[in-house]
Write a structure and sequence with these properties.
The protein is an alpha+beta fold and 89 residues long. It has helices at 60-67, 74-88; strands at residues 7-11, 20-26, 30-34, 45-48, 52-58. The chain is globular.
């Protein structure tokens, strides 16, 4: 399921329920998430796909960087998540 890289997801289960993440990696069962803060890009959160709610939005610039395997800073992820949260209000 590499087509969901770069999308945002919200946790449906666990102690982090409701937290918004960006999907940086994925396979058939798991997604690897970062929020740029508690889960930086060098310490991704591994979560089962069924435990996240996919948000049908993505940051096109960051998604392009992910596809090209370019460096993404934690600040870029934090800013993108902040933009998603403010646009949802």
């Amino acid at each position: 399921m590499s087509d969901i890289k770069g999308y945002f997801a919200s946790s449906k289960a666990g102690h982090d329920k409701g937290t918004v993440y960006m999907i940086l990696e994925s396979d058939d069962v798991y997604v690897y998430l970062s929020d740029g803060n508690l889960r930086p890009t060098d310490k991704l959160k591994k979560k089962k796909l069924k435990h996240v709610q996919l948000i049908k939005q993505k940051d096109s610039d960051l998604a392009e960087k992910i596809e090209k395997n370019l460096f993404i800073s934690n600040e870029e992820i934090k800013y993108a998540i902040k933009q998603i949260k403010t646009s949802a209000k």
